[in-house]
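Hi support team,

I've been running sequence recovery on a batch of backbones for a student project. Most finish fine, but this one hangs at about 90% for roughly twenty minutes before it completes. I'm not sure whether the input is malformed or the queue is just slow. I've pasted the structure tokens below so you can try to reproduce it. Let me know if you need the job ID as well.

Thanks,
M.K.
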């Protein structure tokens, strides 16, 4: 469930474009006015506002926002202005080819998305950057982590809920043999099963594994693998069971301790607001005994804070 709050009587995209143009005019930018409009419009409405700005003022709204806003607020707003698939493509491109390669961010996006979302992102990545995302992963990732990401991107998986119990049991046995039963780990088996099986199937394997060997699949992954390969496997299995719980944990880690990982904070809030942020907030409250809104409020400031809190919606 989305946390985006849209006005009950929605102004036309044309009216929004006029109000934004006024906010940009004169000395300095009326940032509050910009946030009040942009943070309360869905992806379709945001695209229509961009179209109106082009038609009425021959202005590229994204370029204008980039010149009027600065810092973390600029990063968050510019990311928010895109539709979900283009946004994921941009995050992947920045993670894989920016000044600072961020394989954790790329892993998060690839391993937490559904097969249909992945297919769309791959197409958009190619049309936006003239390059295949697999090519950039090939260049930046390595070892079993790279093999898993490439397999996860290229293997078709069902999005249905049907599960073959016989295959489930065989997979649980294969994973046990590949990991906890032997000295060392047969990573190929983990890559094959985690990249080929549907979310529903992986949840069933986890349950079968637990009843057969008294251990969760997550524990087995933690015991048998490490580094970014472990991170990718854990992301896949956690998102298969409960994506909201996964993202609540990612947000907690981004704000834990000294300083804040704003890149992660922006990425998760902006990409999940229109999907399942309501559930993420509930999971956050349940696990960390604090509301996500309060956590974000204490870790951020200024217009950046008000923009993120606008996306998160009311605290209750």
């Amino acid at each position: 469930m989305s946390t985006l709050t849209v006005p009950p009587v929605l102004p036309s995209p044309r009216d929004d474009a006029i109000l934004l143009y006024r906010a940009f005019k004169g000395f300095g930018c009326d940032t509050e006015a910009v946030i009040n409009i942009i943070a309360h419009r869905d992806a379709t409405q945001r695209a229509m506002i961009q179209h109106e700005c082009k038609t009425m003022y021959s202005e590229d709204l994204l370029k204008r926002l980039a010149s009027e806003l600065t810092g973390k607020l600029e990063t968050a707003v510019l990311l928010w202005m895109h539709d979900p698939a283009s946004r994921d493509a941009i995050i992947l491109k920045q993670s894989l080819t920016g000044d600072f390669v961020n394989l954790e961010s790329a892993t998060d996006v690839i391993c937490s998305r559904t097969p249909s979302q992945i297919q769309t992102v791959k197409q958009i990545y190619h049309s936006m950057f003239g390059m295949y995302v697999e090519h950039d992963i090939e260049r930046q990732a390595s070892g079993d982590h790279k093999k898993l990401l490439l397999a996860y991107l290229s293997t078709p998986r069902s999005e249905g809920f049907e599960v073959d119990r016989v295959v489930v049991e065989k997979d649980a046995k294969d994973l046990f043999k590949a990991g906890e039963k032997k000295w060392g780990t047969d990573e190929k088996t983990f890559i094959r099963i985690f990249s080929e099986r549907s979310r529903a199937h992986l949840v069933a394997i986890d349950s079968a594994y637990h009843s057969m060997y008294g251990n969760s699949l997550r524990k087995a992954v933690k015991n048998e693998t490490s580094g970014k390969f472990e991170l990718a496997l854990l992301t896949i299995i956690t998102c298969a069971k409960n994506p909201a719980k996964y993202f609540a944990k990612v947000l907690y880690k981004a704000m834990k301790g000294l300083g804040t990982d704003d890149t992660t904070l922006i990425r998760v809030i902006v990409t999940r607001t229109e999907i399942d942020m309501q559930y993420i907030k509930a999971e956050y409250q349940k696990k960390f005994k604090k509301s996500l809104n309060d956590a974000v409020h204490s870790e951020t400031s200024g217009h950046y804070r008000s923009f993120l809190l606008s996306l998160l919606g009311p605290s209750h």
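--
Follow-up from support: It reproduced on our side and the slowdown came from queue contention, not your input. The chain has a mean pLDDT of 96. No action needed from you.
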